[in-house]
Amino acid sequence: MSDPTRPPGPRIIAIANQKGGVGKTTTAINLSAALAEAGMNVLLVDLDPQGNASTGLGIDPAQRSKTTYDLLVEDAPLQEVIRKTRVDGLWICPATTDMSSADIELFSNAKRSFLLHDALRQPAMDAYHFDYVLIDCPPSLSLLTVNAMVAAHSVLVPLQAEFYALEGLSQLMLTVREVRHSANKDLRIEGVLLTMYDSRNNLSLQVEQDARDNLGPVVFQTRIPRNVRLSEAPSFAVPVLEYDPLSKGSLAYRALAQELLARHNSNR
Ligand code: ADP
Ligand code: MG
Q1: For ligand 1, is residue 77 a contact (CB within 6 Å)?
Q2: Distance separating alpha carbons of residues 174 and 171, to the nearest angstrom
């Protein structure tokens, strides 16, 4: 922690892929929880108007009087937006459908791409001592996702092991490149994460082979298996680590957290 080369403040990771249903929210919830279990202080920013990460962590809509939208558009104070979750060390900025109008409302704002960047760097953040901020992006390359990429140090890309998986990546990488040129030159790819992986399925093996051949070490060693416990946990409003701590899904997200922490420790 005392390394002078480490950037001050939390490490900010955007979890992005413009495709829906690839495991962004599942990764946001369970990687956050696994990092918290490893002793980190973690903030999950729900940037998807669907609010699935907020629901999956048990913040019911009635409790979401102030949301990420208020943080971005209304300059709401952090203390009014950030909530503690049931998981020790895990906090959330919740979202509701009011976020869906953000793209239009932000359009006339000159600083429109920097709103999340600035919100996460306000002095009031220091009091929380977050080690990590994970941002759950919507399934689009909209202004909200661009805000996440401008705010973040890196992008984590969940990749579902299916036929056209790699084609979608080039569009995402183009956006990353544009953000690097315009607003955030140091934005890195944190890693590509194979999700819903089934080692008995040839297609999974093929997608993994292609990804490792084409992308190299940026693909995480850890793969997230298809595991029904992961899809059940949100309806109990807890991360899988709490719902079924020894399930394959739990073990995989713990392994991912360790892989991430090891990378970051060796880069310090
Ligand atoms: P996204 O946020 O990218 O739209 P989600 O994380 O919401 O994707 O996942 C889409 C659906 O797939 C959800 O119903 C989720 O519970 C399920 N799911 C995600 N990852 C897994 C997995 N590894 N195994 C089984 N089901 C999964
Ligand atoms: Mg989602």
Answers
A1: no
A2: 5
Look at residue 268 in the predicted model and tell me its pLDDT: 54
- Residue 67 is predicted with a pLDDT of 94
As given in the structure block, the two tokens for residue 238 are: 């807890």
Write down the pTM of the prediction: 0.95
Count of CB atoms within 10 A of residue 140's CB?
15
Distance CA 204, CA 197 (A): 6
Domains along the sequence of the chain with CATH = 11-266 (3.40.50.300)
d(CA 120, CA 151): 8
Using a 6 Å cutoff on CB, does residue 31 contact ligand 1?
Answer: no
Quote the ligand 2 centre to 3 CA distance (angstroms): 35
Indicate whether residue 64 lines ligand 1 (CB < 6 A). Answer: no
For residues 136-154, average pLDDT? 96
Determine contact, residues 207/165, Cβ cutoff 8 Å. yes
Task: Please tell me if the CB atom of residue 139 comes closer than 6 angstroms to any atom of ligand 1.
Answer: yes
Helix (H, G, I), strand (E, B) or coil at 239: coil
In this predicted model, what pLDDT tens digit does every residue of 160-170 receive, in sequence order? 988 788 888 98
Take atom 14 of ligand 1 and give the residue whose Cα is closest. Answer: 231
Predicted confidence (pLDDT) per residue in 93-137, tens digit: 999 988 888 777 777 777 899 999 999 999 999 999 999 999 999
